[in-house]
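Worked example (supplementary).
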Amino acid sequence: MSVIKKYTIDRLLQRGVSIEDIAEVAFNYLTTNKNLNINLDECINTLLDILNKREILHKIILGIDIDEIVERNLFESPIMDVIKGDDGLFGVDELFGINIADLYGAIGYNTFGYFDKTKPGIIDRLDTSKDTVNTFLDDLVCGLAAAISSKLLHNYMETSNLNTL
Amino acid sequence: MSVIKKYTIDRLLQRGVSIEDIAEVAFNYLTTNKNLNINLDECINTLLDILNKREILHKIILGIDIDEIVERNLFESPIMDVIKGDDGLFGVDELFGINIADLYGAIGYNTFGYFDKTKPGIIDRLDTSKDTVNTFLDDLVCGLAAAISSKLLHNYMETSNLNTL
Amino acid sequence: MSVIKKYTIDRLLQRGVSIEDIAEVAFNYLTTNKNLNINLDECINTLLDILNKREILHKIILGIDIDEIVERNLFESPIMDVIKGDDGLFGVDELFGINIADLYGAIGYNTFGYFDKTKPGIIDRLDTSKDTVNTFLDDLVCGLAAAISSKLLHNYMETSNLNTL
Amino acid sequence: MSVIKKYTIDRLLQRGVSIEDIAEVAFNYLTTNKNLNINLDECINTLLDILNKREILHKIILGIDIDEIVERNLFESPIMDVIKGDDGLFGVDELFGINIADLYGAIGYNTFGYFDKTKPGIIDRLDTSKDTVNTFLDDLVCGLAAAISSKLLHNYMETSNLNTL
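After joint prediction of all chains, the assembly is encoded as:
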């Protein structure tokens, strides 16, 4: 595992988010479909594979950094209050998450949106946490869980239909 | 009203989708938030305003055209069956819808995804219709309803917070 | 090679675009950077790998299908003239291309835009062809060439910096 | 003018970027097309109108904030060096810029990419500045100039073709 990948996983853990937490969001979502035969380990391994992309690692690190800079009151601009309040018009946090999901195709868009609205598992815990600023982190987790789901669905559909199309 | 705008509204109607049908999806969604004081007429007028953008009209017309070309079996390529089956990997239909929502900011992403998963009102009727191909149409309607919602929320938040930030 | 991948490569050839044509656009672009040691074969192999994604194959097939349906005058709607004229406001053709580039990260955006404006190699030939409608095809080629470039740059940068970050 | 809009314009000025600098990039680009009769004042006024969107103001402020936090060495994570070096794989800076251009339709994508590669006017000055970190700022300016261009082109094309389509 590369240094930056291990660093990113540690940073997520320090903010209370484990690899399993993220994989579970995708697993619970995918297993609502009875036709899919997917287990939690596949979701975990898919996430570990997704975390080989440096562009994704950069977004996770920067997003967590921004959340922490807001917690430490280091921004001098009015953006402080916008981020702290998770202002619905802010839009940059969602951009980070969507852009992670996006790397695995268009089906990730609506999965991201669905997670962001229904807040399953760890996402709800992040969203309602009182002591920490998780404005970016919750969207990052939605994006990662949507990416797991898209990647697994693509694999599944590509193998099952290879000859019919 | 421009010729192309009227033409687009007529095409939607011929496919069973009225301006009110689309506005209602946004209205029912927005009014789950008790703090928002929005009525159906505002949703209708917002949609009529959105339909002044030619880029959006083009997507609606082309999307409906593709659905109809599939119905008439005019595509000779394997894309026929992909579109007819609303294959989860296809992705182009969602791209049309997301791109409409997108023009009104990042909050449209998750609203689009939420509508696409939960299929409120007319979207469910399109999705379960047996006789017609609505692969593009249902995503266009999700995109338009998400655009109404984003545009109204932006207006609402920008007027209410103008001075605080 | 899957049936659908072979089919897509044949369709491109029938429209006058070979795998080498597309790879050359990326190759000529990448080799303006003296620090990169990349050969044409790597560009070709990268493209062949990109063409394993069904979501990309679908966009290529549908884009070419639309160009041909316009040539055969099968659309009954005003979208005919919009596509035939490659109307600058149309926007859907660019969306197909961007979305292909996008799957390989954000650096693909500006490469796509740069190809679309400067029209190197085969892209210029498509754009100035008088007898055929290539409204979608030229953007698809820009997208594929940008995807090759992004994928190779990502590989290059990830291996060269693995330990520094 | 709202407090936040004025604040944003002041922040840009403190970083060496005036409204006129940005408008000039769009003006010089648009006037390479002899058919367009556009003057610098229109570009300036269009930019001032674009700066009424809070979502855009937020991206500008946060982008500049991040550049400054990197200058002041306040990030503790490895993202510091990634941003300082304007690492080609970083991708978040381009996302900010593209997302601004995007709000004005798909034609903004390639204009953004073209500016980002060719670096006209102020963009080159930002990019080669030795003393300051402008990783986000140069992409923000590309995005704003592309937005001006798209918005003016849309207006121009929609008025000129209103009846033909």
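Two points are worth noting when inspecting this output. Chain C touches chain D at residues 78, 81-82, 87-89, 91-92, 94-95, 98, 105-107, 109-114, 116-118, 153-154, 157-158, 165 (CB under 8 Å). The mean pLDDT of chain C is 90.
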